[in-house]
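agent: user wants the full assembly modeled, not chains individually. Plan: 1) parse entity lines 2) check alphabet per entity 3) run joint structure prediction 4) return tokens. Steps 1-2 passed, two entities, 262 residues total. Proceeding.
--- entities ---
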Amino acid sequence: MWHILIMAGILLCAIMAIRTKRLLVSAIWLAGCSALVALFLYLLGAPEIAVVELSVGAGLVTVLFVFAINIAGDEVNPSHPVISKPLAWAVIAVAALLVGWLLLPGVNVAVPGLPESQLGNTLWQARSLDMFLIGVLIFAGALAMLGLLAEGKKEAVES
Amino acid sequence: MSISIPVVAGLVILGLLGIGLYALLAVRNLIKVIIALQIMVKGVLVAFILAGRLQGDMATAQSMALVVIVADTIVAVVGLALAVQIRRHTGKLDTTALTTLRR
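--- prediction returned ---
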């Protein structure tokens, strides 16, 4: 029962994040979607990733969105879509049917019990290359933020 | 009628991927495009954890999901920085404002 309620909440938040006109309100709906996805991940048996998703997805990313929207301005969306909405819905329906046809028979099975968590060993020993990649990605993100802020400083000095 | 947890997770994955793909196709605002990417990646996260749960290998699934979360955050940072720069140069957050080579 809880799973179905959380599923409805996740999908509602995602739809509202897309449909809302104001960008700041969209960012708040996205944060709600992230928080509910974190709860769903916890119920699926992944508490470590749920914590990371809650702190990064619902916290850090929301702060970044609010920061960027404050700089860029809360512009109302253009009314005309890139492609016609019926065509977009048709593409989505075909994609959902294909993915559902492949996915749902595979997941309609008994769920095995939760094994003992070995995340620490797996992360630091078997997947140490991933940790190196994470370090590089964080460095790239920090450089991108520095670039964003440096441009603002230069314009402030010129003005 | 009771629905099993993997089926609910499958519906969440389908819904998030569908909503994100629709927004990528139909929305022209650059920040909304990044929000659509975030929504799609949340569907992928749930898919990773569901696959790990069904295979009984949660550690590998969680470590891969961690990489996805970090990569997604960096994509959001770089995308937002690009959106801010485009807004500064073109005065708009519209994707069609980027077609300057057509002129």
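agent: reporting back. The first helix of chain A runs from residue 2 to 19. Chain A touches chain B through 86 residues (CB under 8 Å).
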